[in-house]
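quick q for whoever's on today - can somebody do inverse folding on this one?? i tried earlier but teh output was garbage lol. tokens:
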């Protein structure tokens, strides 16, 4: 009898301790719905390749604007024009900008590109180079994750101001011509005015079902403290596809921010077999990969330990 009593007390103490430990760790970090993210990836691809000036591009722009308007405190379109001298074509482009807690001076920026590449120029068969890329991974994946995060913010206001930006015209350029790429982020950074986010997180090509995310080299060199926090968040989330090694240097939408002195990190898996081919389709992506990245980004926002 006595013995039983002692073990019951011990068990009770153990329960209290477990509640305390789990409460310390995961408190107030909302769930990320990876299946919803995957459905948003599919819906974007359902419009077709979102190539600038195409019908699919126009329809997807309206869709994204409506979705973000439903979640954000303020949502706006930033229209701009790019004149392509080589092809003598005028491109009508739009960045979509959603703000949460717009009155808060302390802000961070989360971003992805929503356009698809017009040319599948990594295809082995050169007769396919003039075909557009679907961009399930290269475009739709990052946007899908941020669409779900926008919905999380609606129901669980973030502890500081956050802006989510979908950039247009990221994937337009020809190889070796830096001027033709990153059109949306360059335009945004050039017209940034007094807006000064604490840091920027870009997510790109994170839907690959065989995910491997290395520390992108420009991010590591110029925004190393943000990289450390993201990888700490990944550790806390058991995100095993965030690898500790430093990877390639990638010319992506974080560069225009680094150029004006704003710390910016690119979370990207560039080693994707279907990159810039006609096979970059939803079946190459998985809800699990979207979920892993979504959970890490939410941890960055809601875990106070990572804010210092
Ligand atoms: Zn691309």
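ok took a stab at it. sequence:
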């Amino acid at each position: 009898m006595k013995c039983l009593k002692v073990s019951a007390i011990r068990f009770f103490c153990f329960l209290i301790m477990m509640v305390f430990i789990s409460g310390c760790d995961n408190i107030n970090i909302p769930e990320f719905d990876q299946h919803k993210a995957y459905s948003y990836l599919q819906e974007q691809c359902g419009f077709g390749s979102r190539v600038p000036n195409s019908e699919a591009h126009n329809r997807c722009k309206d869709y994204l604007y409506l979705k973000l308007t439903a979640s954000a405190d303020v949502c706006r379109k930033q229209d701009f024009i790019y004149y392509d001298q080589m092809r003598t074509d005028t491109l009508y482009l739009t960045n979509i900008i959603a703000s949460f807690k717009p009155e808060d001076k302390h802000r961070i920026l989360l971003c992805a590109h929503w356009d698809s590449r017009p040319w599948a120029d990594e295809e082995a068969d050169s007769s396919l180079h003039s075909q557009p890329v679907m961009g399930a991974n290269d475009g739709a994946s990052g946007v899908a994750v941020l669409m779900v995060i926008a919905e999380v913010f609606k129901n669980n206001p973030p502890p500081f101001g956050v802006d989510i930006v979908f950039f247009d015209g990221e994937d337009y350029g020809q190889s070796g011509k830096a001027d033709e790429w990153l059109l949306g982020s360059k335009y945004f950074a050039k017209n940034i005015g007094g807006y000064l986010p604490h840091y920027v997180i870009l997510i790109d090509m994170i839907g690959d079902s065989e995910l491997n995310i290395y520390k992108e080299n420009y991010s590591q060199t110029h925004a190393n403290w943000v990289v450390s926090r993201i990888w700490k968040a990944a550790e806390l989330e058991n995100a095993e596809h965030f690898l500790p090694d430093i990877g390639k240097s990638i010319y992506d939408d974080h560069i225009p921010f680094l150029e004006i002195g704003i710390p910016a990190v690119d979370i990207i898996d560039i080693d994707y077999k279907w990159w810039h081919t006609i096979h970059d389709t939803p079946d190459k992506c998985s809800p699990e990969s979207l979920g892993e990245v979504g959970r890490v980004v939410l941890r960055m926002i809601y875990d106070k330990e990572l804010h210092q």
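fwiw The pocket of zinc ion is lined by residues 117, 138, 171, 276 (CB under 6 Å). also The first strand starts at residue 74 and ends at 84. so keep that in mind when u check it
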